Structures are given as structure tokens and as C-alpha cells.
């Protein structure tokens, strides 16, 4: 049975998954999972890229020691927008900044004095946000110009890691589409934007299509790990693009939700959808594994609950999904609502304090217990997804009849059921490891083992369990939605 390595590295943890394919069915096995958190240092947030690289090699060694000797290829997907800078000798110049770096907001506001948000959207089809690569670069220019002056090449995070393994410098299409530096519908860097912002227009490594072979693992890596050479493949390098590749979408009336720290919700489209309504609704157009696009919105996901867990752990309070579900059921329904995407929740010192402050300021009952906090977060998330569904239907002119949820957050079955309730649509949940499976799918297609994306999605249906959720208590949820809109101002 043939095997590939799929590295799925998110903004809170990473994992190596071994994908096997017998010609009829896909199999997935977790080899190693590791924490990945930004490091706060000298007032900035950085990614510890060398630690990530070291843990990736450890995972590969573990796989080889378990008897997985003949590996066909490896692929890497990560979160979007972030990058590393190389010198002219190929050395990494500094630890890459995290998109949560607080200076990015200031850099974005200054950059928008030179080119407007509307013009940027009209050119790129990408939502203007401080995390975007274009604004991170401008922030560097303003506040760390020496680093930018010494840089010879920019590699986006998954391609930086691929470079460390194979020595090739290129930026894959789906991850490149998150930068707000590609012209909509095209695959080459837009030098006009770079020049308008007085940024070097030859800094970014060339873009390359998904489903291509980047190179082969370096001999020094092979010797260290004790393995034969492995192809390094440009799968869908953006984790959301990989996740969508694995969701068994049935038709043009299906919505995708890639669910983790963030939730990316949208629909596949042939070409970028650029209009004033799309821009004002905060939607964006990013690439898919088959060279097309997805009209989506980046939304808050489990970040809110993850940060509350941090506070509870500091207080010595242990929690898990089962305990949280029990506490949720014990708390009164529809008591307090927040807009999960309010900027105050992006990176607060204390998430619970911010949520309580929001409720107090909007004259709602303030969540005091764990259960009330969990109930407030999960109901607010689900109601926001209902709001997004209505916007998607307006933008596409279609009645969207089902929602496909994939990713680690669907382990929270309560969230899946609440999403069905809040949207009034059937929810199909699965697969859980959607990004890793989509990563592997890209490799199997590139290797010629799977014909195309249509066949791959059918294989997902036949290989991994799916769970179905039907809407419940619709009258109560419609009433709650009206209150949610009133308290959030949406």
C-alpha cells in the first residue's frame, strides 16, 4: 500500500498524518502531534520556525521507526499570510512575525493612506485586514526597515518549511492568494501594489500551481532521518484550501465551513466575485486546489473558548469537551450574546473579562459561571454563522441548502448541532482531519494515483465517517437571532 506524509500545521498545533491508499480507500493515521504557539518577545509575537522544523523532523523519524520506510511524498499546509525572509545566501534572517503582531494594525492604517481599501479589494478580490501579507510587509518597512533591506527572498510559511526540506524557493498558489498581493484571477505578483507602497517588487519568490512537485528531500535530511529521498509536493498549502478539498461538497448549493481556531465559511466559485456588496460584507476570494476560487469570510472559531480555557487552567480548573458540554446543558439558553468577530476579542489579555465587558456594555446579563460563558460563546458563534449564511445567499443569489463542516472543531458536537439550529440547514460534519486529508489528496492527485478532485471527494465519502445534524427548535432560534442582531448591531 502506498503512503504519503501530510503535515498539517495550524496556529495552535501541528501534526504529521500518514495517508495510505490501496486504490479503493484512503486511510489516515496520526504519527505525532505537537503544540505550536506564537512566542511573545520584546513586544512582538513571533513563530518559532526552527522549533516547528525540528518537530517535523522528529515526526518523520518516528514514522520511519514505526516501519514506514517507503514514503512516496510529503506535503505541508499551514495558516495563511505569514512569511519568512531569506538572505541572498539562503539564510533565514529572523524569526517570522506572527499575524497577531500588534504593530500590524498601525502598519495597515498607514498603508491605506497610499492605496485605499476599495482599490485594494478591486485589484485583488481579498478582504482588507491587518493580518494580510501586504500590510505585514509595510509594517516591516516602517518599523524594522533594516530587516527588509537585507532580505533577498520572501517565502510564505508552508513554502518556507518546504524550502528547509528541499531547498527550492517558490510560493504555491492557494497560500499566495491570502497575501492581498495577487491580481484577482491571476497567479503572478501584482507589482503595482508593491510599488505604490514603496515595497521591493522582486522580493516574493515566484508563484507555482498546486499539485506540482517542488523538489526532493535534501540528502542531509535523508541521512539524519534515515530515509530514502521523498518528493516534496505543492499540495494546497493553505490549510483552508486543503480542508475544502477534503469536504465532500455535493453541488453548487453546498456551503463549506473549515472549523478550528478560525472558521472559514463560504462557497466555491469559478472566478473571484468582486462587488461593493462583497467588500462591505467582509467577504474575500482565495484560491482552491484546482486553480479556482472560494468566496468566503474569515470568522472567529474556537479561539474564544481556547482563550477561556487558558484562564481556567491558570485557576486550576480542568476541562474537556465532555465537561464543557455538560456545563453548557446546565446553563440557561439565549441569555447573552456577543459579536464573536468584534476586534476586542482578537488578542485580549483576558478573554473572559472582554466577553463580560461586552455583555455589560450592551446591557445584557453578564456570564458569571463556566457554563454561562460556554453557552454565550457557542450560541453567539452559531448565530453569527446564521448571519453569514444569509449574506452568502444574498451575494450568490442562491438558496444554499446544506452546510459541510470539517476540521478539529467539529469534535464539539454541540457546536455542530447549534450551527444547524441557527442556520436552519442540514449540517454534514466530517471529516475531522479535513486539512490533513485534503493535503494528502493533493499529493495523491499530483502522483497520478487519484484522477481529480471529484474522484477524491468520492473517496472521502467512502473512507471517513460523516455525521448529520438536522435543525431543531426553529421558532426559538429565530427569536434568538433577532435578539442577537439587536445586541450585536449586525
TrEMBL record:
Sequence ranges assigned to domain Carbohydrate kinase FGGY N-terminal in this UniProt record: 6-243
Domain of life per record: Bacteria
CDD domains (UniProt xref): ASKHA_NBD_FGGY_RhaB-like
Residues annotated as signal peptide: none
Keywords (A to Z) from UniProt: ATP-binding, Disulfide bond, Kinase, Nucleotide-binding, Rhamnose metabolism, Transferase
Domain Carbohydrate kinase FGGY C-terminal, first and last residues per copy: 256-446
InterPro entries the UniProt entry points to: ATPase_NBD, FGGY_C, FGGY_N, Rhamnulokinase
One of the Pfam families matching this protein, by short name: FGGY_C
PANTHER family per UniProt: L-RHAMNULOKINASE (PTHR10196:SF93), SUGAR KINASE (PTHR10196)
Similarity-based family: Belongs to the FGGY kinase family.
Protein name per UniProt: Rhamnulokinase
Organism: Gracilibacillus salinarum
Amino acid at each position: 500500500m502506498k503512503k504519503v506524509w501530510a503535515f498539517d500545521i495550524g496556529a495552535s498545533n501541528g501534526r504529521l498524518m500518514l495517508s495510505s491508499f490501496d486504490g479503493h480507500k484512503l486511510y489516515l493515521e496520526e504519527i505525532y502531534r505537537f503544540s505550536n504557539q506564537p512566542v511573545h518577545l520584546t513586544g512582538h509575537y513571533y513563530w518559532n520556525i526552527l522549533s516547528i522544523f525540528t518537530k517535523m523532523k522528529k515526526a518523520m523519524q518516528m514514522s520511519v521507526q514505526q516501519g514506514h520506510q517507503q514514503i512516496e511524498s510529503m506535503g505541508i499546509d499551514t495558516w495563511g499570510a505569514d512569511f519568512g525572509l531569506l538572505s541572498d545566501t539562503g539564510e533565514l534572517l529572523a524569526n517570522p512575525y506572527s499575524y497577531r503582531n500588534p504593530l500590524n494594525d498601525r502598519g495597515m492604517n498607514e498603508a491605506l493612506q497610499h492605496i485605499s481599501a476599495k482599490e485594494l479589494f478591486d485589484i485583488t478580490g481579498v478582504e482588507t485586514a491587518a493580518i494580510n501579507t501586504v500590510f505585514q510587509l509595510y509594517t516591516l518597512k516602517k518599523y524594522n526597515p533594516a530587516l527588509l533591506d537585507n532580505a533577498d527572498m520572501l517565502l510564505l510559511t508552508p513554502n518556507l518549511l518546504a524550502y528547509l526540506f528541499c531547498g527550492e524557493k517558490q510560493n504555491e498558489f492557494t497560500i499566495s492568494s491570502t497575501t492581498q498581493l495577487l491580481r484577482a484571477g491571476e497567479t503572478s505578483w501584482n507589482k503595482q501594489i508593491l510599488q505604490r507602497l514603496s515595497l521591493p517588487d522582486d522580493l516574493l519568490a515566484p508563484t507555482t500551481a498546486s499539485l506540482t512537485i517542488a523538489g526532493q528531500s535534501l540528502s542531509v535530511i535523508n541521512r539524519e532521518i534515515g530515509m530514502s529521498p521523498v518528493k516534496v509536493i505543492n499540495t494546497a498549502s493553505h490549510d483552508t484550501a486543503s480542508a475544502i478539498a477534503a469536504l465532500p461538497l455535493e453541488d453548487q448549493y453546498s456551503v463549506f465551513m473549515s472549523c478550528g481556531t478560525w472558521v472559514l465559511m463560504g462557497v466555491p466559485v469559478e472566478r473571484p466575485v468582486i462587488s461593493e456588496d462583497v467588500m462591505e460584507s467582509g467577504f474575500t476570494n482565495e484560491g482552491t486546489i484546482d486553480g479556482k476560487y472560494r468566496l468566503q469570510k474569515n470568522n472567529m472559531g474556537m479561539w474564544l473558548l481556547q482563550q477561556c480555557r487558558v484562564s481556567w487552567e491558570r485557576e486550576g480548573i480542568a476541562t474537556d469537551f465532555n465537561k464543557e458540554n455538560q456545563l453548557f446543558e446546565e446553563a440557561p439558553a439565549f441569555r447573552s450574546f456577543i459579536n464573536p468577530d468584534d476586534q476586542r476579542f482578537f488578542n485580549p489579555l483576558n478573554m473572559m473579562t472582554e466577553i463580560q465587558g461586552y455583555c455589560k456594555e450592551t446591557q445584557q446579563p453578564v456570564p458569571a459561571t463556566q457554563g454561562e460563558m460556554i453557552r454565550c460563546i457557542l450560541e453567539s458563534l452559531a448565530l453569527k454563522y446564521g448571519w453569514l449564511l444569509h449574506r452568502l445567499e444574498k451575494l450568490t443569489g442562491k438558496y444554499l441548502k446544506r452546510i459541510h463542516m470539517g476540521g478539529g472543531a467539529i469534535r464539539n458536537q454541540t457546536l455542530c448541532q447549534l450551527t444547524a439550529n441557527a442556520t436552519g440547514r442540514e449540517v454534514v460534519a466530517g471529516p475531522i482531519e479535513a486539512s490533513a486529508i485534503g493535503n494528502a489528496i493533493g499529493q495523491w492527485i499530483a502522483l497520478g494515483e487519484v484522477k481529480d478532485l471529484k474522484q477524491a471527494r468520492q473517496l472521502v465519502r467512502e473512507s471517513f465517517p460523516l455525521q448529520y445534524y438536522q435543525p431543531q427548535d426553529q421558532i426559538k432560534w429565530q427569536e434568538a437571532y433577532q435578539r442577537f442582531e439587536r445586541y450585536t448591531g449586525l
